[in-house]
Amino acid sequence: MPEAHADLDAMQAAYKQAVETWIAAIRDEEALASVAHNVAEIDHWEAAHFREDEIRQKVKAAKKAYEDALRRAHFDF
Fold it and tell me: What is the DSSP string of 11-32?
């Protein structure tokens, strides 16, 4: 079982790192929402939103993989 826990530990760490990356992307997007009201800044803000959304999708995938592994480890399904 230690190897299974090593896999779970790695998945948990990957999920936590993905969340930290997502938090940073959210903060980047929020910072751009507080700048000058011009088209160039709006474009940067929109690009930050797309980056945040892309990272959020990775977080969701990492969470699902970790949850699925936990279910397999604890409930055998």
Answer: HHHHHHHHHHHHHHHHHHHHHH
Domain boundaries, the chain: 12-75
Contacts of 56 (CB under 8 A, 6+ apart): 22, 25
Q: What pLDDT does 44 receive?
A: 93
How far, in Å, CA of 37 to CA of 22, rounded? 25
pLDDT tier at 77 (50, 70, 90 boundaries)?
A: confident
Give CA–CA dist 53/29, Å, rounded: 10
8 A C-beta contact, residue 52 and residue 25: yes
pLDDT at 8 over 80: yes
